[in-house]
Amino acid sequence: MDSFQTGDPRYLKRKVKGCTLDVHPTERALIVQYEVEATVLGELGIPMVGERKECQKIIRLKSLNAHTDTSSLARKVVEECRLIHSSKLLEVEQLLFYLQNRKQSNDNQEKKHISSRELKPYTGVELDEEASINSIDEYVELLYEDIQEKIRGATLIFQLARNPDNLEELIQNEAAIGALARVLREDWKQSVDLATTIIYVFYCFSSFSQFHGLVTHFKIGALCMNIIEHELKRYDLWQDELQKKKKAYILFKKFSENQNLKKEHEKSFRKYQSLLVKQEHLLRVALGLLLNLAEDTRQS
């Protein structure tokens, strides 16, 4: 699994806060609920953008049966799960004892527990057309055209991905997912809108635990780290450029009422603000995707 913990700590600070324990409603498993707080830092360690996610880890206890030594198993769980502090050993043991004696339901309903996260409010690039799952092949073809057509194709696919009912069908379309990953890898520097939209598609997948394998297969997490680092450097360059123009404007203003210089400064500032808004969308979705992948649901 791609983990944002491998990134440069100067750019990404991660903190796990809180930890509550509960039993799984249908399986012999413990549920560890916790909060992950991540902050993107600038060159000087100043927080630029932050995000919090409610996460959970499911510890499935395959070996638990009527004859299991719950004290020994509790120690093993605490030792192997870094999220659980040693002070919770007794609580773990009590929960294991409860699971050991709980009557198992004979209900034949699907037991797989899927954890979904709330999608970020993002509409993407506005189009005058509504996407249809039946036209997915046409949208994939757009991903092989110029940048504007790629943005259009990615936006239409994003419209579909925002509806969780479409994710199962989308994941079966290897051409679509592979093309999105390729375009993101090759063209993300050419368009912030394109990069943001495609990452949002993968964010939709990362919002459900059973699709994490798809996201990690295409190394989207590692790519997001590269994008975050690049965008932070761009932010520093914008700041430097804006400061230089501001100083020049202030200095020149003392000796002249040159309106052209004033207009140039105001134009640069408006452009800077517009770029910041787009960059913040990109950073937030990239960080949100990494936070989703940070939830480790591997079996204990």
From TrEMBL:
One cellular component term from this protein's GO annotations in UniProt: axoneme
Q: Which GO terms describe its molecular function?
A: kinesin binding
> Which Pfam families does UniProt cross-reference here?
KAP
Q: Which domain of life is it from?
A: Eukaryota
Q: Which residues form the signal peptide?
A: none
The record's SMART domains line, in alphabetical order, gives:
KAP
An individual GO BP term: cilium organization
Q: Name it.
A: Kinesin-associated protein 3
